[in-house]
Each structure stands twice: as C-alpha cells, then as structure tokens.
TrEMBL record:
It comes from the Eukaryota. The lineage of its organism: Eukaryota, Viridiplantae, Streptophyta, Embryophyta, Tracheophyta. Gene3D superfamilies: 1.10.340.70. InterPro entries: Retrovirus_Pol_polyprotein (IPR050951). PANTHER family: PROTEIN CBG26694, PROTEIN NYNRIN-LIKE. This is Uncharacterized protein. It comes from Dorcoceras hygrometricum.
Length: 144
C-alpha cells in the first residue's frame, strides 16, 4: 500500500462503525499491511489514482471533436473566442481548436447535450466507479 496511515489500521483503538466492519471482515484473512512509498509501489500508486484515470479517459477523440463542433453553436463560447482574439482575456485561450482555461481544463459548450454527456461520463465511467454527486463534480472540475 502507498498510504502510511493504513498500516496502522489493525492496531487502531478508535474506529468508526464502517472501519470496525472492515476490520471484522479482514480478521478472517491472514495478511500483513506494509507501507511502501508511491515511487516504489507503482501498481498500488496507479490504482489509488482511479479518479485521475477517469479524467484522462474522458476528452479523447470523438468527445474533443464534438466539443470543437459545439463551440460554433454556443453564444458564450463565441464571446470568449472574440475576447481571446482581441486580447481582452488571459483566463481563456485556444489550443488545438478547443477553448481552455486555468489548469488546462476545457470549456464545454452548451450545445447538443455535451454538458450532460460529460456529467454522465464522469459519473458512469468504469474508472470512476459511480462516485456520487460530490466526487462526480470534482471529476468534471478537474478536466472541464
């Protein structure tokens, strides 16, 4: 594991009800938790970053093309593109035909159900594992 706090799980005196259930379940198995820093334990490090994998999987090929296409039909996007052209904004810029903002996040136009599709992708992605409303919104905000 790449989380040092987890190595103390078996010896903790105070546990939440959820932790107590897991500790009771895990007591049936013969195992030992050992801490390894992320740079040494590459597999566990990758698995613990499933939300990042979800964000990476989203805006690929087809979705990027649809976002580019939708920019022409979104009045707010057109206004932002005009500001970029006139040098009136530094918060947005154009890259590969896409409208970007801080954190290299993409602007998703309000056209053709794209925003709903982005929400659905972040919520239903096999990497996101049905994360709930707060985590879904966090996944959207990481990339869009």
């Amino acid at each position: 594991m790449d989380n040092v706090a987890t190595s103390y799980f078996q010896t903790q005196k105070k546990l939440s009800p959820n932790q107590a259930r897991w500790q009771d379940f895990l007591a049936e198995f013969d195992y030992e938790l050992k801490y390894k820093p992320g740079r040494v334990n590459v597999i566990a490090d990758a698995l613990s970053r499933n939300s990042e994998l979800a964000a990476i999987s989203i805006a690929q090929g087809h979705m990027k093309d649809r976002i580019k296409e939708g920019l022409a039909h979104d009045p707010q996007a057109q206004t932002l593109l005009a500001y970029i052209k006139d040098g009136k904004t530094r918060r947005f810029w154009q890259s590969e035909g896409l409208l970007c903002t801080k954190g290299n996040r993409l602007y998703v136009p309000a056209h053709g159900g794209l925003r709903r599709e982005v929400l659905k992708e972040c919520h239903d992605s096999k990497w996101a594992e049905n994360p709930g409303i707060h985590r879904t919104l966090a996944l959207v905000e990481e990339r869009y």
